[in-house]
Amino acid sequence: MAYPATRSDAVMDTLHGQQVADPYRWLEDEKAPEVQAWMKAQDGFARAALEKLPGRAALEKRFTELFYVDSVTAPFRRGNRFFYMRTHKDKEKAIVYWKDGESGQEKVLLDPNAMSKDAPVSLGRWVPSWDGKRVAFAVRPNAADEATLHVIDVDTGEWSKVDVIEGAKYANTNWTPDGKGFYYEWLPTDASIPVDARPGYTELKFHKLGEDPKKDVVVHERTGDPTTFLQGDLSRDGKYLFASILRGWSENDVYWKHPADKDWRLLVKGKGAKYTVLAWKDRFYVVTDEGAPRQRIFAVDPRKADRANWKELVPEDPKATLESVSLVGGHLALEYLKDVTTELRITTLEGKPVRTVQLPGVGAASNLTGLEDQDDAYFSYSSFTTPRQVYRTSVKSGKVDLWAKVEVPMDPDAYTTEQVFFTSKDGTKVPMFLVHKKGLKKDGNAPTLLYGYGGFLVSMQPSFRASILPWLDAGGVYAVANLRGGGEYGTAWHEAGRGANKQNVFDDFAGAAEYLAKEKYTQAKKLAIYGGSNGGLLVGAAMTQRPELYGAVVCGVPLLDMVRFHLFGSGRTWVPEYGSAEDAGQFKTLYAYSPYHHVKQDVRYPALLMMSSDHDDRVDPMHARKFVAAVQNAKGNSAPTLLRIEANAGHGGADQVAKAIESSVDMYAFLFQALDVARPDAGVAAESR
């Protein structure tokens, strides 16, 4: 393909005695006119190529039917008021609604569709006060992580002109019981602070409504360490304020105090363990993997909070991983993963088992949401072939009722899901979900899309994905591998795929590909891989390490230069997950798998669609630019390599349905073409009817 020209510079670093070439370092400077021109040319080239692909009209029609749907989320109850979100068939973005009582009149509270006429903005996290009279919410320009906090009066719908707080990238508002103020995490927006150092400047502050935010009191100073996160929390009764200092996703320290106190008290110093604290009626419930890779729960009396006085309430289950805990209806609600499917259990506040909540089937469910002293609670459920359903349950009686469901134009009985286990390179058994139409013929010819993530304790659960339906209807298989690095089997599973063990994740993924071919689901030329963010690193490493296993790659908002990732975006906060090239030993590990540094001149790589965003302030798009430049200029590579850049979009992409349809059409049209799949027109059109 006649790609836009990309110059290569003779840039060479010597790191820990190793010479490291970086010929496309000039592409790191996004503001440079030359880089802007290059991005425009690459995006234009990619979109022109994608626009010519067959089957687009049918895909667009089907995705329009699947994505523009009416739906509702589980509600939050605050006082007698209920708050929730709805999507509408004729709206681009979800809207926040409220009503007095469950049978009250529904009213619009926050409509991001009408928030700005000048520039695209997104609605970030929103939190109602405990009395339901006000809501603090974040507005994010271009769907980026950077945000500004606002406060809206629920009764009048008026935004406060005083309570406007910039620097809310990491902010989570914790309201006081009287609704007169809230605690939040604040990050300075001073341009003189290097972007990689900013996380270490996070402070925990208190804002009193109606006062100038610039005078907000700092209640916990910044750590000064950009590899840490600072997070605050306040108990519902306002008695206990917590500050957690997180070092990555595996370890944290927890401090607490009464809000009126001056000094913080150390609850626990995390040494290779993480702790989550819930407080209710002068008792702390501590959820931890300390001495329990699948997590357990302790009760702590704050008057005698020394570690020796902790009382174990719920011991570790050796066969299920405790994902989350909530306090609802005077009970503990426990969300477990058992071989990557959800199980919801209820216990007393003393940890005595009460029941397992009845779920509609084998799939993914959220934990119960509700209030500590209210019997009604809600949870959502879905599976690969069941759209999201919201259920209401009585904690006391165990009765479960369907509260709301999403209607999607599909026949769930046409598909089937199976879970298989394959053996990775070192002998580890790894689970994988396979979704396809019933009656699939295992002759090695089914186009297959293999998805993975493998990091940060994130579990890939079997939840609904409307975007895969046209793929399934064309005879395709959708596979999700539960790689090490995730949280499916607890802390030990995560540790086996992070830091010095990161190569295990890539070996697991290759093992999944080999299994799919061995079991005659597909073959290399019919197998595509897909991943985003840390999953983008995954597929980048997969295609550079084992290019012969795959026919196509879709890589989204990725990390790919693992030698310099810590210098950009939120990179230093990921050092506990990956390591840093500033450390000699960790550099050796990172350089060994860094995809950008392993693009070879004499290799034919799979067809590559790189999907980037122009306002991604989490993972810097320089990764995508440099990698694409390297692959396009590899002389032995003849497969298409396209860089698609989403405008006015952050790490999670744009938040309009129309944009999601556009990107999905581009992605699947690319995959159909790259894997030589029969045009989807007939099957998609039939399904549409």
In brief:
Helix content is 17%, strand content 32%. It has 11 helices and 40 strands.
Q: Write down how many β-strands occur, each being a DSSP E stretch of 2 or more residues.
A: 40
Radius of gyration: 25 Å
Distance between the termini: 38 Å
- In the predicted model, the low-confidence regions spanning at least 5 consecutive residues are 682-689
Biggest β-sheet: count, sense, barrel?
Answer: 8 strands, mixed
CATH architecture assignment of the domain at 12-64 and 410-675: 3-Layer(aba) Sandwich
Named CATH topology of the domain at 12-64 and 410-675: Rossmann fold
Mean pLDDT: 96
CATH superfamily of the domain at 12-64 and 410-675: Alpha/Beta hydrolase fold, catalytic domain
Instruction: Bin the helical content.
Output: 10-25%
Q: What top-tier CATH class of the domain at 12-64 and 410-675 fits best? A: Alpha Beta
| Helix-and-strand structural type | alpha+beta
Q: What global shape is seen?
A: globular
Provide the β-strand percentage band. 25-35%
Question: Which sequence of strands runs across the widest sheet?
Answer: 33-34-36-35-37-38-39-40
Q: What's the total helix number? A: 11
Q: How is this structure best described in words?
A:
There is one protein chain. The protein is α+β, with helices and mostly antiparallel strands. Among the domains are: 12-64 and 410-675, 3-Layer(aba) Sandwich (Rossmann fold), CATH 3.40.50; 317-407. Helix content is 17%, strand content 32%. The chain is built from eleven helices and 40 strands. It has an eight-stranded mixed sheet, sandwiched between helices. Strands 3, 4, 5, 6 and 7 form a five-stranded antiparallel sheet that branches. Strands 28, 29, 30, 31 and 32 form a five-stranded antiparallel sheet that branches. α9 links the parallel β39 and β40 (641-646). α2 (56-67) runs parallel beside α11 (681-688) and α5 (503-518) crosses α6 (534-545). It is globular, with a radius of gyration of 25 Å.
